[in-house]
Amino acid sequence: MTLRCDARRFLMAALVATVMVGAAALAVWTVSGAAAQEDGGSTAGTQGGGDESRTRQIAPQNQIVTVTTDRTEYRNGDAIIISGKITTNVVDTPIILQVFTDVNPVYINQITPAGDNSYWDIVKTEGAKWAKPGEYEVSVRYGQDGKATTEFTIVPGIGAPGGSSKEITGSTEVDAGSETFDVKYVITGGMVEDMTLDWRDFTLLVDINVTNSGGGSITMELPRKYIGAERTDESSHTTDEIFIVLIDDVETAYDESSPRQTAREITIDFLEGDSEIAIIGTYAVPEFEHMMVVMATIAGVMLVSAMLLRGGRYGILTAHYGRSAASQ
Questions:
Q1: Alpha helix (H) ranges present in the chain?
Q2: Under 8 Å CB-to-CB from 301, ≥6 apart: which residues?
Q3: Domain limits of the chain?
Q4: Which of 42, 44, 46, 212 has the fewest CB atoms within 10 Å, measured from its CB?
């Protein structure tokens, strides 16, 4: 009887320990994720940037949605970069973008906002509907109350074949599983469409849209906490290693500025037609907090299983020796 009671107490203690370990791991996961999101919110940049003196916003914007163009004058054949930001991202609600000359629509599109609430679109001024010189109005709507407008001018002549080489400064929110982080960038000759992290392959994938026939470049600030390339020598001293950079699966060179303690800044050139940049390091954040919870749960299950087996043996031995004592 004493052995059976001891086994039950031991089993209860194991169960309590398992619950405490799982709760502690879950608390670490939740707190660290909240802190990362708060930090990301305080440092997130805005899409657009560039020379603000070259853009024009003509209507009072209600701050629900904004809109701007990369220039104020274009020729037929030029590419127009239209960009802006929304204050709150409503699920399954697209941004409706329209371009008018007089009252006649010449372009319409639905755009899904990016993770940092920015949006952009590239409009090619090709064809007869863009041939008329004069004022054009860009109108965007978001939800029931969000509306903003701006204007640009089409001037006579044929646009240069080079396309747009505007410099855009922004930041993209990247999903790291249990948390997110921001990658700041400056791009010329193109636009960043998306960034994703494949932590299993230690790879940051950057989708771009090249708007300039001469290509361009992108400079990115890579947070060491989430992705990096390092090597460790025999004395356990860690130094930076080079990244492997692929553009559409072809390895390419890159430039790097002086590394900082919290981030590495690299610059990559691209050509017209390029679409995906892969930056491969030696580590990427592996949903560490989530793995802690999983590992704690597995350890708890194993511990409880072991205790049940031991408890079963205690029960069998107690019953056996109890019957033996009774028979004697």
A1: 2-43, 288-327
A2: 18
A3: 2-26+289-327, 32-46+166-284, 52-158
A4: 42
Read off the amino acid at residue 251: E
Token pair in block for residue 174: 């990247």
Please say whether the beta carbons of 254 and 245 come within 8 A. yes
Residues 205 and 277: beta-carbon distance below 8 Å: yes
State how far the alpha carbon of 45 is from the alpha carbons of 57, 86, 185, 186, in Å. Answer: 20, 13, 9, 11
Of the candidates 120, 119, 118, 115, the residue with the CA atom closest to the CA atom of residue 37: 115
Buried b / exposed e across 258-293, counting CB within 10 Å, b at 16+?
A: eeeeebbbbebebeeebeebbbbbbebbebebbebb
The answer to whether the beta carbons of residues 181 and 223 sit under 8 Å apart is yes
Range 52-158 has CATH code 1.10.3660.10: no
pTM: 0.52
Q: Which of 57, 75, 171 is nearest to 124 (CA)?
A: 75
* pLDDT tens-digit map of 210-237: 888 788 999 999 999 999 999 998 888 9
**Residue 297 class from Cβ within 10 Å (0-12 exposed, 13-18 middle, 19+ buried)?**
middle
CA dist 181 and 223 (Å) reads: 8
List all residues 6 or more positions away from 150 whose beta carbon is below 8 Å from its beta carbon.
55, 56, 57, 58, 59, 67, 68, 69, 137, 138
Does residue 243 sit in helix, strand or coil? Answer: coil
Residue 101 and residue 151 in contact, taking contact as beta carbons nearer than 8 Å: no
Average pLDDT over residues 275-293: 75
